[in-house]
Amino acid sequence: MLHVAINGKPGAFAEGISILHALRSAGIEVPTLCHDDRLKPYGGCRLCVVQVKGWPRPVTACNTPLEAGMEIETHSPEIENARRTLLALLAHDSRPFAIPHRPEKEFHKVLRLYDIPADRDGGSRNVLPDDSHPYIRVDMSQCIHCYRCVRICNEVQGQFVWQVWNRGDRTVIRPDSGTTLLESGCVSCGACVDTCPTGALEDNSILSFGTPTSWTRTTCPYCGTGCEMFVGLRENRIVSVRPASDAPVSRGHLCVKGRYAFEFVHSPSRVTQPMIRVGQEWKRVSWDEAIQFTAGELRRIVTEHGSDAVGVLGSARATNEENYLAQKFARVVLGTNNVDCCARVCHAPSAAALKTMLGTGAATNSFADIERARTILVCGANSTENHPIVGARIKQAALRGAHLIVIDPRRIELARYADCHLQLRPGTNVPLLNAMACSILQEGLCDEQAMRHRIADGRRFEEFIREWPAERAEKICGVEAGLIRKAARLYAVDKPAMCFHGLGVTEHSQGTEGVMCLVNLALLTGNIGKPGTGVNPLRGQNNVQGAAHMGCDPKSLTGSISLEDGGDIFQRAWDAPIPPRKGLNLMEMMDAARRGTLKALWAIGYDVFLTNPRAHETGKALRSLECVIVQDMFLNETAKEFGTVFLPAASSFEKDGTFMNAERRIQRVRKAIDPLGQSRPDWKILCDIAAAMGSGAQFDFHSPEEIWNEVRSVWKAGAGISYTRLEHGGLQWPCPSEDHPGTDILHADAFSAGERARLRPVDYTSTSEKVSDEFPFVLNSGRTFYQFNAGTMTMRTANASLRPVDCLQISPADAERLSLQDEERVRVRSHYGEAVLPVQIDSGISPGELFATFHSVDVFLNFLTGPRQDPFTGTPEYKVTAVQLEKI
């Protein structure tokens, strides 16, 4: 501890902090306009100056380290006069209307504190506002040159959009485009707005609807990163979202979706009253009618065709509590294990591979390990687009000197910062990763301690992997052997090394085995069970990890416990038998519907028709059903075409509960506004229908916390995660007791599967989807930055103007050969169907390859995708489709 005196009072403070942080911890406030705890101390505005006894001149508190024995004076007359003079100079350029309109701004608070009026002439600058951006208004006539916008864009987001132009009194801050913000490289994260102390940068939503009158802390409803945020409310309307500065995942940062894409909640297309289809028309009904109708249809089908004639799909957008009830409803009320969720079509291979090899089907490490890693391997994950906060942290790590290896068929943004970009052919992950393992063994780079103490039967794997030299892989995946060896060397030598992977690994016919190959690399090099290491899937939707983990899986109960291992526990807790028959996963449900053996499907927050592959076949399956129950906020494509009854669900902003992010962190979801119209939380709908079907005793819950307490009673690894503890932040399971701190790193001392893990020999099996003279291109599909999954939420926000339609990315060489220009429309045909969409020429695409997103209903890309699946999990092979192009 450092002993100092502040304003004559002695105090003790931790080492390594600045004077400013010592003052704040002592409850002493000094003004500062250039400081933000997310940024490196700057000292530019000089308002935080203090006098240190014996020092020749005042020093800025924000960037001066605290030293033992300091005697600090913070508010002497000389210091206060200096501050007042500085503020008067800054106020000379302030717009006169801004202070009364935005009194909460930091600059305006300090002006009032020191009784400094704004210059009545509005200063010398005459800068027209920039209203080009749908979310952010720019009015640099209010700028005081604190440079916080410049620094936060550089140091947190890593986008380098805001630039300082000219010098001296001619200094201006403009976007990198030199013109408007919309034309710049801005990714609309809003960090500059969040840090701006004057209103020079402001959210349009606040200008339209007013300053929030209250704030509610909750968790983002988009990707699986799990950013925490504060929702600003005014008259039961969301008017602003701000990042939570102390959130361990996002660290005071958000992406465009979390920060701005909340308007879907108030969309005019929101359905807020139950409906039943009568003929070809939807009829609005009361909740009692909808519940009785739904219960009656389910009861009829079970009576006529048996329990296994019904399937239930949980939702990655619903809470843990609601997904727990969905699988409990299937098993207790309906008597079937036909329950699944969208993890089936994304990261089921990750869970299967990690559980098979290590014993736990979830990420091994935390996002905090990004800053601890010396090498980061990103395989099949475009994280700056699809997990922007994680992507920004990886980018910043690379800018600070961490090694970065990117394995991706496209030259994604992170490839710009990578030591090695392995631009492989789609579908060849296994040969490439095998070659990296072979190189590690050939060069003697294995972790000897790990090989001796943590790995079983390593010799068998060594014999297998010798057959995969880099030269063999080069011929298959198109990556130079030398580059493969360089990447392997970096990963094995510059440790700790951390691996992230995404759907570019899992959505293949060898998806599970691709993840197994990544686990092999981590085990061989000892990059497991330690800080800055591990194998970590980047989960797509906000609660896809939780949906599957709560038991929305035909083979597993809550906690990913098998039906055989957990049956007794759950039967006692539920006072009901667990169905003994094998359940169907999502893809098997579609097959059963086409055969006529599945008669009803309940889809909760899941647009099956738009997002499943082989849309023609999915349509046939849904059309064959006698009853399709859609529970959602919007009349999605499944509801429009095939729905029998529509149950309007509340958004995550309108209910309480928990989400589970990609790093196993359980976090609170808190109700910010009342549910719109007659919409209800998913858990309440499930309980009401269960009661109507005679199972009210097992679904007699009055709050999400009651449901969660039942979850804790059957899931030992989550027993210590109470709502009370979650008030103070998220917790990572395993957390078996209420005095347990949670587990940030798995497999530190032993693997969940035992003391030793087994390396997995994985041979390459080429996909049966091949290019030909008729279909010469390989189409890869995935998500894009401004849209999210099926676009159900983002297409109902201003994000639709930033990315209005799906595009087909094509290499410049192929575009020239086919005489194609940007935005020209083409017809894309595969063996299975066709779609029409505009072209986008992209130098990051290799010749012979294409990439498209699937968010737009007008395009409906999944009419193109085919039938191949991962044999372990049934996950579709979205990433490889042979197609032809026809210019329109």
Distinctive features:
37 strands; six-stranded mixed beta barrel; seven-stranded mixed beta sheet; alpha/beta; globular
Can you lay out the helices and strands and say which pair or pack?
Elements: E1 2-6, E2 9-13, H1 19-25, E3 49-52, E4 59-60, E5 71-73, H2 77-91, H3 98-101, H4 106-113, E6 136-138, H5 148-157, E7 162-165, E8 172-175, H6 191-195, E9 201-203, H7 204-209, E10 214-219, E11 228-233, E12 238-243, H8 256-260, E13 275-278, E14 281-284, H9 287-305, E15 310-313, H10 320-334, E16 339-340, H11 348-358, E17 375-379, H12 383-386, H13 388-399, E18 403-407, E19 420-422, H14 429-442, H15 448-453, E20 455-456, H16 458-465, H17 470-477, H18 481-493, E21 497-501, H19 503-506, H20 511-525, E22 535-537, H21 544-549, E23 556-557, E24 561-562, H22 563-574, H23 586-595, E25 600-604, H24 608-611, H25 615-624, E26 627-632, H26 637-642, E27 645-648, E28 657-660, E29 665-669, H27 682-692, H28 704-714, H29 723-726, E30 731-732, E31 757-758, E32 777-782, H30 799-802, E33 808-810, H31 812-817, E34 825-830, E35 834-841, E36 849-853, E37 881-887
Parallel strand pairs: 1-5, 15-16, 15-25, 17-18, 17-21, 18-19, 20-31, 21-22, 25-26, 26-27, 32-36, 33-35
Antiparallel strand pairs: 1-2, 3-4, 3-5, 6-9, 7-8, 10-11, 11-12, 13-14, 13-27, 23-24, 28-29, 29-30, 32-37, 33-36, 34-35, 34-37
- Calculate Rg over CA atoms: 28 Å
Largest sheet: 7 strands, mixed
Number of helices: 31
Q: Look at the helices and sheets and give the structural class.
A: alpha/beta
Distance between the termini: 73 Å
Q: What general form does the structure show?
A: globular
| Low-pLDDT regions | none
